[in-house]
Amino acid sequence: MAANSNTINTFPRVWEAQDSVTRPANATQYAAGDAVSDNATTATSAGYFALDFKTKFGAGITLTDFTLHKSDHDVTSAAFALLLFTEAPAFAGWEDNAPLAITDAEMQECKGVVPFSADDWTNVVTGDVQTVSRTIGVVLDSADTKVYGILVAADTYTPASGEVFTVTAHALQD
Known about the structure:
Radius of gyration: 15 Å
Helix content: under 10%
Shape: globular
Distance between the termini: 29 Å
Oligomer: single chain
Low-confidence stretches: none
C-alpha cells in the first residue's frame, strides 16, 4: 500500500498519513526487541513506515493519534512499539526478526515512541486494530514532509506469514 495523506482545511489543519509494511513469508516468532520489517537479511525502504503529511516545508506539527492495523487475528502477546524519526532510516540493524540494533547517536534522533499494548486490540474482519493517543511535537525539515516509523516487538509474538502492518497517524498544524 502506498503512503497517502489527507487534510481538512481548518485551523489548526488536521493531517492524516498512512503506510504499510509487509513482513516476510514466514511465521518465525519475534522476541521482545526484534524489529518488524520487510526483509530478514537487508531491510529496505518498504520495511519502515513513511508517513507523509505533505505540510508546508519547515513546519512544526503535533502528532496526536496512531492506529496500528495488523492483518492477522492472533493478538496473543501482540505488543509493539513504534519508534518515530524525522529522517529516513539510513542505518542497519532493523532487519525483520532480528534484535533492533541501532546506535545511540541514531536513537538520539528518535522523536517519540508509541506503545501498542497486548491488551487493547479490537478484532475486526480484516485483522486487529488498536489506536493510541499521544502528543508528540516534531519539526519537519525543508526537504522532507515525512515522519518515519520503525516497528519493534515489545514481547514475543508469532506472526502470520506475510502479515501486513499498517500505521495511520494524525497530526495538527497551526
